[in-house]
Design a protein that fits this description.
The protein has 386 residues and is α/β, with parallel strands linked by helices. Among the domains are: 87 residues; 157 residues. β18 and β19 form a beta hairpin. α4 runs parallel beside α6. The protein is elongated. It starts with 5 loop residues before the first helix and ends in a 10-residue tail after the last strand. 25% of the residues are buried.
């Protein structure tokens, strides 16, 4: 195997430095013109001197004329070379100017994008909710117009949602002091966000995130995607609190929902995760998770996940790789109606699979040769409480 140093390709791609034309090249050109003229004239004159006397004078004049023509031609060829070099220099200068203009334009675009990021970040940290909303919409517009920055925009929105937040729907209102006694509790600290206003900002952030991950095309290989769909995104919402989170029909490359609190329900129906979907220690507090028709790629991790008191649904779900349901809490039961698991999958990342208690993979019940059904081991009514 042949290895190249890092600088080898870089040096070959760099243009050679421009060298100034030495003065002696012009002197050599003049000498060549003179020598060509003298040599041609001398040779032709020697031939003319051997002719008959009556035609010798005319031949000598023709010899001199021919020698001068050869000198002029040699000088013209040298001048043509100089003209070609001048043209090459002009083209190289034009290419350099175009490159400088393109770099200047790229720098201007990057500078403008950096300014937009900075301004949006300042807006997200503002005390006023409308200003924070403006920052979110500015980020959305930036990601929509600059596809190369979409993952960064998604990362910023996810980071905002990971910030600590006490939802007004679950927080207890403070006890009102008696009218006769003044309140001894300190007032709101400067910079604190109003809970209900912050809730609206976070709902907007969730909607922006899921709107651009929503892809419900049936024939994705032949049907063009919606221009608002951002393909190949990875999301990390570790430790976030998500309210009425609707991820239905969304398509992500990788998603991390570890230790997330899902308040008010969470919908993952027909969601697709190309590689990994992590829900380790996630909690579904008000309503259980709804994963009807979801597709899990390389890993589906529901370790120590708490699905609350309602029934969790994985009906018609597809598990295409490793699956982990160890330590899962299912007080309301779980459904795997028509759920299937891929038998022959890529095991380079591992081949471990564990299902909730009383559920297993029945390779005898297949819809085709590659997929096996997920069934209750006790053969009771599917979806009954554990």
């Amino acid at each position: 195997m042949r290895f190249h140093r890092l600088g080898d390709h870089e040096s070959s791609a760099r243009p050679r430095p421009l060298r100034v034309l030495p003065w002696w090249i012009a002197l050599v050109g003049v000498i060549m013109v003179i020598m060509a003229t003298w040599a041609t004239t001398a040779w032709l004159l020697a031939e003319a001197n051997q002719a008959l006397p009556q035609v010798r004078a005319g031949l000598r004049i023709d010899a001199i004329r021919t020698g001068l023509s050869v000198g002029a031609g040699t000088g013209g060829a040298f001048a043509l070379l100089l003209a070609l070099r001048r043209q090459w220099l002009n083209e190289r200068a034009q290419a350099h100017q175009e490159k400088v203009a393109a770099m200047s334009e790229l720098d201007a675009v990057e500078r403008r994008i950096t300014e937009l990021y900075t301004k949006a970040g300042d807006q997200l940290g503002n005390e006023r909710a409308p200003v924070r909303l403006a920052g979110l919409y500015a980020l959305e517009r930036l990601g929509q117009t600059h596809p190369d920055h979409r993952q960064t925009v998604v990362d910023v929105i996810c980071a905002y949602l990971r910030m600590p937040f006490a939802s007004p729907a679950i927080s207890q209102p403070p006890a009102r002091p008696p009218a006769a006694e003044p309140s001894s509790e300190p007032g709101p600290k400067p910079g604190e966000h109003h809970p209900r206003q912050e809730l609206q900002v976070r709902l907007t952030a969730q909607r922006i995130l899921t709107d651009h991950l929503h892809d419900m095309r049936e024939g994705r290989r032949t049907t063009p995607a919606n221009p608002r769909f951002w393909a190949g995104m990875q999301i990390d919402l570790t430790g976030a609190m998500l309210v009425d989170f609707d991820f239905g029909g969304c398509h992500a490359m990788r998603a991390i929902f570890d230790e997330v609190r899902f308040v008010g329900g969470a919908n993952f129906a027909y969601a697709e995760f190309d590689t990994d979907a992590y829900f380790e220690k996630a909690r579904f507090e008000d309503k259980s998770g709804h994963f009807h028709g979801a597709r899990f790629g390389r890993r589906a991790v529901f370790v120590d996940t708490d699905f609350g008191g309602e029934e969790a649904s994985f009906a018609s779900a597809r598990f295409c790789g490793m699956t982990f349901f160890s330590g899962v809490r299912l007080e309301g039961g779980v459904r795997f109606d028509d759920a299937q698991a891929l038998l022959d999958f890529d095991t380079r990342w591992g081949n471990e699979r564990n299902w909730p208690p009383r559920w297993s993979l029945d390779s005898m019940k297949r819809q085709d040769e590659d997929w096996a059904m997920i069934v209750r081991e006790d053969h009771q009514t599917v979806g009954g409480p554990l």
